[in-house]
UniProtKB/TrEMBL annotation:
Subunit structure as annotated in this protein's UniProt entry: The SWAP complex consists of NPM1, NCL, PARP1 and SWAP70.
Coiled coil: 309-530
Function according to Swiss-Prot or TrEMBL: Phosphatidylinositol 3,4,5-trisphosphate-dependent guanine nucleotide exchange factor (GEF) which, independently of RAS, transduces signals from tyrosine kinase receptors to RAC. It also mediates signaling of membrane ruffling. Regulates the actin cytoskeleton as an effector or adapter protein in response to agonist stimulated phosphatidylinositol (3,4)-bisphosphate production and cell protrusion.
Organism per entry: Pheucticus melanocephalus
Gene3D superfamilies on file: Pleckstrin-homology domain (PH domain)/Phosphotyrosine-binding domain (PTB)
Domain PH: 203-299
InterPro entries, sorted: EF-hand_SWAP70_N (IPR057836), PH-like_dom_sf (IPR011993), PH_domain (IPR001849), PH_SWAP70 (IPR057837)
Record-level GO cellular component terms: cytoplasm; lamellipodium; nucleus; plasma membrane
Protein name: Switch-associated protein 70
Main location, first listed in the record: membrane
Subcellular location field: Cell membrane; Cell projection, Lamellipodium; Cytoplasm; Nucleus
Length: 579
């Protein structure tokens, strides 16, 4: 479909460029829909050609409409000759030369269609000299004349100096002028153009009169046969007005030569899937030509190849593209060589200037070198004297550094002695902390016993309060028990006082230990100051931090919450046992 679209576009382009689109664009679109068997879309047509400023009536604006509403709907079921004739009618009157030509308007139309087939796929359309030569050769061979290569070479040289190729109308003028058909009458030229038109445009590979055997009455009738890439049509006469039938060709068809029989000579057989056709040629040469032509057509169908003239056109086009690419590559290389040569010349000129500058600099440098040599000799003498003085200063500095090193070593030894004393102070502090821990444990034990006694007293007090509320009958008995409990309470109070005295003694011991700890801490602090004063060469080793201690009503405790809870559980158990 892409190749078909390109072929249609070339003919449409001629018609489109020949019309005043504002007035005749609708006519062109309507005619295209008619000859291409495409449904009309009047709404889209009116929308496209509306008269306001937004209507896309330009060349670029018309192409989207043409592609979307016409070309994309083409199915191929249309008469190509009628389509080309419609486009020819719209453009021929405006572009066809007014001067008399040796060919008729019908022949000019066929040349125009052939031009569209052979022209390049770029706009504006032109036919290159190679294709012009190919077409003129085909027409000359069809006329039975000899090809004048030298004459065409002169024409080609003159053409290449002015332009790349010819337009359709210039090609018509060239063929109609008779420049390459001198000595031939109008009818011979017309027949030659018609033969080339049939081959290139109508895909007629071969045509001619032969006898065909009927399928029903088995009689032999003369028919005009036309061979195309996938069909053989046969008509009553060569005017093609009355078609009698078609022989559909495909890859399964074959053709065979038959021996003479029933008084018929030059027989051959065309076998298809559904029918078999017996045909008689006029002579052996025609028979062999038809057999070979049909076999070639069937071979192309099996291979899925294009007709010979279309394949040849594609090869010529690819060859031109290849030659053009090689020419462009050669020109690019020549430009690169030229640029490289210019760059080389610039580099050589630059090198020459650099050599001249280097020679001048070398002479200047030699002059400076001699002058510098004298200056260096004087400077060397001064440097030698200066070096002697520097050496003496360095020896004095070495002696001074040795003295400073000895002092530094002495300071290190002092710091080591201070470090040992600091370790002893830390040991004293550690022992004081251990003593403090022992006193705290003792204090905790006394506190536990005191707590137990207080709990027991509170319990007795509660029991006494309950006893007072009893009846008179029980008061005497309870009174006796109260007396006994008061005695026990008195004993407990005595024990409590004793515990109070022991607690005070423990507090005094704790204060003594605390003073010792403060003394050790002061010593440690003094050692820290000394170490800091001696440049911090020794890092102090201090005991780790401790968790905060419990505080009671009588001072800091030496036990943890877990130990206190365990002792409370023990007291409760003893109290339950005593009651």
């Amino acid at each position: 479909m892409v190749g078909l679209k390109e072929e249609l576009l070339k003919s449409i382009w001629h018609a489109f460029t020949a019309l005043d689109l504002d007035r005749s664009g609708k006519v062109l679109s309507h005619n295209l829909c008619t000859v291409l068997n495409v449904p009309h879309d009047p709404v889209a047509l009116e929308e496209h050609f509306r008269d306001d400023d937004e209507g896309p009536v330009s060349n670029q604006g018309y192409m989207p409409y043409l592609n979307k509403f016409i070309l994309e709907k083409v199915q191929g079921n249309f008469d190509k000759v009628e389509f080309n004739r419609m486009c020819w009618t719209l453009c021929a009157k405006k572009n066809l030369s007014k001067s008399p030509l040796l060919i008729s308007d019908e022949d000019a139309f066929k040349v125009w269609v052939i031009f569209n087939f052979l022209s390049e796929d770029k706009y504006p359309l032109i036919i290159v000299p190679e294709e012009i030569e190919y077409l003129l050769k085909k027409i000359t061979e069809a006329m039975g004349a000899g090809w004048q290569q030298e004459q065409f070479d002169h024409y080609k040289i003159a053409l290449n100096t002015s332009r790349e190729g010819l337009s359709a109308w210039e090609l018509i003028d060239l063929i109609g002028s008779g420049q390459f058909s001198k000595g031939m009458d109008r009818q011979t030229v017309s027949m030659a153009i018609n033969e080339v038109f049939n081959e290139l445009i109508l895909d007629v590979l071969k045509q001619g009169y032969m006898l065909k055997k009927g399928h029903k009455r088995k009689n032999w009738m003369e028919r005009w046969f036309v061979l195309k890439p996938n069909i053989i049509s046969y008509y009553v006469s060569e005017d093609l007005k009355e078609k009698k039938g078609d022989i559909i060709l495909d890859g399964n068809c074959c053709v065979e030569a038959l021996p003479d029989k029933d008084g018929k000579k030059c027989l051959f057989l065309i076998k298809c899937l559904d029918k078999t056709f017996e045909i008689s040629a006029s002579d052996k040469k025609k028979k062999q030509e038809w057999i070979q032509a049909i076999q070639s057509t069937v071979s192309l169908l099996r291979a899925g190849s294009a007709p010979p003239h279309k394949e040849a056109r594609q090869k010529r086009k690819e060859l031109r593209q290849k030659l053009q690419a090689e020419q462009e590559e050669l020109e690019r290389q020549m430009r690169e060589l030229q640029v490289a040569n210019e760059n080389k010349q610039k580099e050589l000129e630059t090198v020459r200037k650099q050599l001249e500058a280097a020679a001048a600099r070398a002479a200047e440098e030699e002059k400076k070198r001699l002058q510098t040599q004298v200056e260096l000799q004087d400077r060397f003498s001064l440097e030698l004297e200066r070096e002697k003085m520097v050496r003496q200063k360095m020896e004095e500095q070495v002696a001074q550094k040795s003295s400073e090193l000895e002092q530094y070593l002495q300071r290190v030894r002092e710091l080591e002695e201070m470090y040992k004393q600091l370790q002893e102070a830390l040991e004293d502090e550690k022992q004081a902390r251990q003593d403090e821990e022992t006193v705290r444990k003792l204090q905790a034990r006394l506190l536990e016993e005191e707590t137990a006694k207080r709990a027991e007293l509170e319990k007795w007090h509660l029991q006494q309060q309950q006893t007072i509320r009893m009846t008179e009958a029980e008061k005497q008995e309870l009174e006796n028990q109260r007396l006994m409990k008061e005695q026990a309470l008195h004993v407990a109070m005595e024990q409590l006082k004793q515990l109070e005295l022991e607690r005070k003694e423990a507090l005094e011991q704790y204060e003594e230990v605390k003073k010792k700890l403060e003394t050790a801490a002061n010593k440690t602090k003094s050692w820290k100051d000394k170490v800091a004063h001696h440049e911090g060469l020794i890092r102090l080793i201090e005991p780790g931090s401790k968790n905060p201690h419990l505080i009671t009503n009588w001072g800091p405790a030496a036990f943890t919450e877990a130990e206190l809870e365990q002792r409370q559980r023990n007291w409760k158990g003893k109290k339950a046992t005593s009651t």
